[in-house]
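Help!! Second protein's tokens look totally different from the first
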Amino acid sequence: MWDSGKERPQKRQRLDKTEENTMSEPSSSALTSLPYDMVLECLARVSISDHTSLSLVSKSHRSLLRSLELYGVRSRTGRTEKCIFLCLSIPSDPFVRWFAFTPKALNHPGRLVPIRPHLYQPSEVSAVVAHGCGIYIIGGVIGGRRSSKVFFLDGRTHTWTNLPSMLEARASAAAGVVDGKIYVLGGCEEGKARIYGEVFDRETQTWDVLPMPGLDEKCLRFPMVYESAVVMTMEENKKVLALSGAAEGLLYNPSEGTLKRGNWDLCGKRRGWQVIENVIYSCETGGRILWCEATEMERLTHKGMEWGEVMGLEDLRKTLCASKLVSYGWGLSDHWEYFKRERASQGLLKAHVDDVYPGHKLSSSGPNLLLFWDVLGPHKLEIFCAEISLQRRKDTGQIGGNVEWSEVVMTLDPPHHQHQQHCKLLYSLSLDL
């Protein structure tokens, strides 16, 4: 009896292991045993914010979540979500870093998904555009020199592709997408530009020179571009807008192949253009968020572009004034020297470029603005994001903003001393995935 009783626990142990294995596999095998189309339909209902956790279940889950067919189903069934991509320069990291998050995931710490860096991405002042399923990083600075390299970051798979290089090396160029093609203007080396503008055909993967009738010598003397956008003009066609280093507006019409001079604006005080429903928004020194009609760029006036303040965000001003999240290091020496002279004459000289230019940054998410800023505490540096809905008053035409949500999206170690390099947000874009 003892021997028999002694064997039973061993037998029971083997049964328990069998049951344990049986229970650990169904979640994976049950899903993959379904027809492939049905599996995609099921996974298309899962929020992108849960993809990282779900991919840990098994290799088959991970493969399915990275399949391009899944995103096709999400698009076809109207289940796409806004996914925000941030590119940061972190002092302790030799590479610029991309992160992705969805607003739904903000209440879950650790949901900012790091993306494997591209080892050769320029460190700053690239032109970046979001189109389709990914982000194009165009030109920039590598080793202190302009680059012609172009990279594509697939927002679905978080993988990189090297695209054909531009015909001209560029940094701080304007870029915009019109009818599926990417138009790039300026950013050439001063006085040595052979090609001021070029266009990338995504279908043929080729670059072509843009015809530039109307290009004046001032564009070549001040080839750097500090702002760019794509807007619908008064003629109801899309144009690429750019604000040159000479504070002069430029409008390129792809349908006509013409470049025209537009209105002027201050390069330093207002930065970070974002266009939503043909209204240009920007950040201003002093913590304000401004707006103006895109048609302002087409008017030629001695007063320059007329801006108004987005009302309802006054409580954010003090916080935004203290932010130093945005990088203005490369290529702004001329404007910085000008501001130093101007402020010195007023007794307002400050010690660093970050004290002069706006330290908060705008991006867009559908009809809403995304606002980024940082808050430096004694033991941590927090990066915040807020989504702002916009509404125009019918009686006055003024635009007001309302903060829909505001959350910390990243926490970092603070700089150890005043002159240590600060974490910078280089680019922020959103994709529908």
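Here's the second one for comparison:
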Amino acid sequence: MNNYVLSSSVLTFFSAISRSTRLKMLFQRIKGKLLEFNLFKSIPRSTDETILRQQRHTTRLYLVLLLVTSITLIFCAFLESITISKTIELPSLETFIQLNKEYPLTLDCPCGHTSFEYKQFFSDIEVEYHEICSSEFITARWIQLQFIEFPTRVFYINDFRFQSQMHFQLLSTLCRVAKQTIEDKLQSFYRTKFITPKAIDNFSFQIESELILEQFKRTVPESYRWTLQLIEANTEINQLILPLSSVFRSERDVHNKGVFHLKPEATALHDRPKCMQGAGGVYEENCECSLLLLNYPNECVLKTFVWKEDFFKETIPGMRLTVSPVRSVLISTLECFYNKICLSEITRRINSSVSSTNFSTLRLSSLTMNESQYDTIDMLAKKLFIRTWSNNQSSYESYFNRCHPLSCQYSYPSRYDIIDAVARITGTLGALNFLLKLLVPYLIKLSSYIWAKIKSRRQNTIRPSVETVSTRRGK
């Protein structure tokens, strides 16, 4: 029994030894094969150890370079993104909106029509004017009013019954010119070309449209201001005979002693009545200096009034008179015509047998503040008597239809799929394999040549030193 156990142990020991030996032999064989592995064998095969060593070095360098480049190519192929471009012919508005949401940075849709008029996509712009421009106070019914006889023979140029016709005729003209200016500017605006090389999204279009409209609203009043200045300059240049800017000389009629003839005399600008502030802050000659006449600081400004039955004067709030009828209107306000009591003071002086006395006060717009009734007509005129702009919306659908893009191009990044990546790697490795097999042998030969030169130079440097030492020892 003991012999059997002993023999089994011996067999196990020798089998273990033989297994380890076989593994060592296998490793040695693999190592030898790897060391002798040669992909660049010459034909016919060479037995020169130097040549074989170069061929093995060439094989190792080739395999290392091939492995490194293969790993690099695999990573690049699967990690690198590519740009995919697509084109859609005749896109609809819905398609364009969807594409713009998904590819806003790369979407490009050239317009079929790169320029077209604003009227193609701007709806009809409407204007709500100040209530005075639609009231009966600028109609012939009010302007041509007939008033009752003056209770005194004294002639006052700033009496409402004398001043009103010219005042409201000019106000009517200002409203009419303002409306005509806006109509002309709108027609010119509608004919303006909108330049759009490519389709833009709805948000950008609305922003650009709002900027265009705001610029239009800012520039329109400028031309109207020039018109006002032209009207005023025309009055000055033509030297029209106006009450407060003229001087008359009265002469008794030779044949009728009760008749006087008024003959105008030429007056210079410096001869006109001026406002002068007296002691205690009282204005002399019933004139006041208006802060609204910045360019005419010394010009006389009179308050407008109406006579009452008891020969007292009732001031009309807001109305003024100066040497220029245009300036008289511009520095005046309309506050009296918002007030029933004030308006009744005027209508009571109307000759009811000739003219109607049924007039209503102005009504403030719901969009304005109550203080706007105290705005000067100059402030209203600078805004062209505009209360609000309405229907100033632009149609994006109309814009897109006029743009009419024939095609849309867009691109987006993507990864290679497996098939494309494998095909790309295979093709690249084939070319790389050819180049490496062609170049690596020359690199090894070049490096061997350089190493041989360096080694030879070292030997030549060491040998003279050895000979010198030997000679010295011999002596």
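Reply: Different proteins will give different token patterns, so don't panic. Residues 265-271, 278-284, 469-473 have pLDDT under 50 and may be disordered.
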